């Protein structure tokens, strides 16, 4: 019994020692963990180390500078652009290319608009006066509606004489989306050579492209912009609202530019959506308005209760309202022109019909094809609106199937046109007494007799 108690006591003793060792190890590990947690971080301000405190102080200064100097994406502010902002963007080679490419493209578009189409411009002297006689270093900003992808340069070229188009330095700068005009190196080089600045969609009004446009205005240049931001999707029937980007161009420039608005209609017929080549034989009407002033908005620039964003919106809204007014007027002028054009075409048709009725067709060998009833027929009806607006209509108002040609076809059979021409030429060189016999001669024989009597005779005489 005594031996058994001693063994049990030794077993309890070893268990107690193992438990005590376990408790001591646990406590020691817990102490180590707690000390590690309480250790000061290298970037903590409570650190006693010189390096950690210095780095933390620098980080705090950087956070304060970033918070005080940078604006949030939703905030609007005035961002000034220095005059040498884009000095590295234009090398001597680019300027030389622009001096050749801009006049060449401008004159080609001018010939296309005024030679192959019909353009009527109202108030063009306002743009010429602003372009040629504005004060020195006074920037010029033109705004217009956007209907077709070729509004610029076709409309701009149609408003200027060729002598002005030769001066590439004083011609306009314009903006174009980078994903449309600057997709590859070739297109980028072309649009850069014709004075186009890239802008990125979705990057807001404080991007580099807008800064470059403001830099051009600060140097006294001419910038053209479409306030809608994109072209109309319904063929120019409606006009979108003006974006606040145009407000930034006006308010953030060092000198408030001279703003000239104009609206055009008819370009949707020259370059419809989806077309790859422009069409000819169309009528375009352009109306230029008076300069837009923003003195009242500029007077409220120092008011703390008016945010910068509201000022941008006020400028854009005023421009949009003016363009809407001009759009109503230009559509009215285009409708009046269409009515006058129809009346003029109808008058030409009537006069041509009267002249044809007074012709002595018998002297030309076509008397058998003209009856008294046909000569007494009334004038042909006026051409319909569909005919006037068709693609086959020329600028002067005659189509390929015009009234004159159709009336001539009514006087004679198309199979005898050759005989009619031969008899007419032959009669001019023969006596009147042979007219009856000549009418009985076929067309081939008539041509043969004409050649033998005139050309062959002259050759034999030589």
Automatic annotation (TrEMBL):
One of its GO terms (molecular function) is O-acyltransferase activity. CDD domains: LPLAT_AGPAT-like. It is a peripheral membrane protein. It is found in: Mitochondrion inner membrane; Mitochondrion outer membrane. Residues 140-267 form the Phospholipid/glycerol acyltransferase domain. Keywords: Acyltransferase, Lipid metabolism, Membrane, Mitochondrion, Mitochondrion inner membrane, Mitochondrion outer membrane, Transferase. It catalyses: 1'-[1,2-diacyl-sn-glycero-3-phospho],3'-[1-acyl-sn-glycero-3-phospho]-glycerol + a 1,2-diacyl-sn-glycero-3-phosphocholine = a cardiolipin + a 1-acyl-sn-glycero-3-phosphocholine. It comes from the Eukaryota. SUPFAM superfamilies: Glycerol-3-phosphate (1)-acyltransferase (SSF69593). InterPro entries: Plipid/glycerol_acylTrfase, Tafazzin. Belongs to the taffazin family. PANTHER family: TAFAZZIN, TAZ PROTEIN TAFAZZIN. This is Tafazzin family protein. The gene is LOC105134224.
